[in-house]
């Protein structure tokens, strides 16, 4: 039986198109024409003998076969990129200190650090998971090289990695009297999520009260799972026992920014690249899952 070798450029186009939400955006990102991208997708379908995309409204959606191919494509590309990085970065050595919000501790942090460690075994990584204001203090003091922070850039050279919608989150089987103050589960201040949620309620004159505060995200999830109220967060790390609530006022998007302390080094630059790629891949997965 003759084996079929898939073209990694075509797989990268597929992944990019799905993550960006269309062929036109993928074409612009990859520097190709939209017709060339469409031709690549048709050839991939011919190679696999399956339809990967179907029309959905004005756009396209993955078929069941397309969803399978997308998962494998991500793994193939990650291994390819890791191989290239490992060979090119054999001489990388030293240490790098990274700070991340609690949302990423169990979701994307292990994958990003594992990928970096496999490619650059001579680099020592130290990671700190904490709240925004703590990470900013550590960054300013020079105790972190990189930090992912919720909110707009607060340091020169910081860049916005993504913007995500803030959601009301709670149990689907627990309702609250609309005439009574809405019980809120929130971080202790300062917290941008808390500030935006209270502002949204105040704009429509909806009374509220703080039913539970905690310094940890695990505490917020536990209180929401117990039905003590509603909390506000992105979909990242959303426990299976909780859901997004749509019957409350709309909340704004929140920026996810990557801050860097001091001058760039090859080690810091490489970890920065892996972080950005991991976040973009993760966000695409989260949003696709939400839309399914």
UniProtKB/TrEMBL annotation:
Keywords: DNA-binding, Transcription, Transcription regulation. PROSITE patterns: HTH_LYSR. Residues 6-63 form the HTH lysR-type domain. GO terms for molecular function: DNA binding; DNA-binding transcription factor activity. PANTHER family: HTH-TYPE TRANSCRIPTIONAL REGULATOR LRHA-RELATED (PTHR30579:SF7), TRANSCRIPTIONAL REGULATOR (PTHR30579). Belongs to the LysR transcriptional regulatory family. This is LysR family transcriptional regulator. It comes from Aliidongia dinghuensis.
């Amino acid at each position: 039986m003759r084996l079929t070798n898939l073209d990694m450029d075509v797989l990268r186009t597929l992944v990019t198109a799905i993550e960006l939400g269309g062929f036109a955006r993928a074409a612009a990102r990859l520097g190709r024409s939209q017709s060339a991208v469409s031709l690549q997708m048709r050839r991939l379908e011919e190679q696999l003998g399956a339809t990967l995309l179907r029309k959905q409204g004005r756009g396209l959606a993955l078929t069941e076969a397309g969803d399978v191919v997308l998962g494998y494509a991500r793994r193939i590309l990650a291994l390819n990129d890791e191989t290239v990085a490992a060979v090119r970065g054999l001489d990388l050595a030293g240490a790098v200190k990274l700070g991340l919000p609690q949302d990423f501790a169990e979701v994307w942090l292990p994958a990003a650090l594992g990928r970096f460690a496999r490619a650059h075994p001579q680099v020592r990584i130290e990671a700190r998971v904490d709240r925004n204001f703590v990470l900013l203090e550590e960054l300013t003091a020079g105790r972190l090289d990189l930090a992912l922070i919720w909110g707009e850039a607060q340091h020169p050279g910081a860049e916005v990695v993504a913007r995500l919608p803030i959601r009301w989150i709670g149990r689907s089987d627990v309702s609250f009297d609309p005439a009574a103050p809405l019980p809120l589960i929130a971080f202790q201040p300062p917290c941008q999520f808390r500030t935006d949620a209270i502002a949204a309620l105040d704009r429509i004159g909806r009374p509220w009260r703080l039913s539970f505060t905690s310094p940890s995200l695990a505490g917020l999830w536990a209180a929401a799972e117990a039905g003590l109220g509603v909390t506000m967060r992105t979909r990242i790390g959303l426990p299976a026992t909780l859901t997004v609530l749509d019957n409350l006022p709309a909340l704004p998007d929140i920026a996810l920014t990557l801050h860097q302390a001091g001058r760039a080094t090859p080690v810091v630059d490489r970890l920065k690249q892996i972080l950005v790629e991991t976040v973009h891949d993760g966000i695409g997965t989260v949003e696709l899952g939400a839309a399914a």
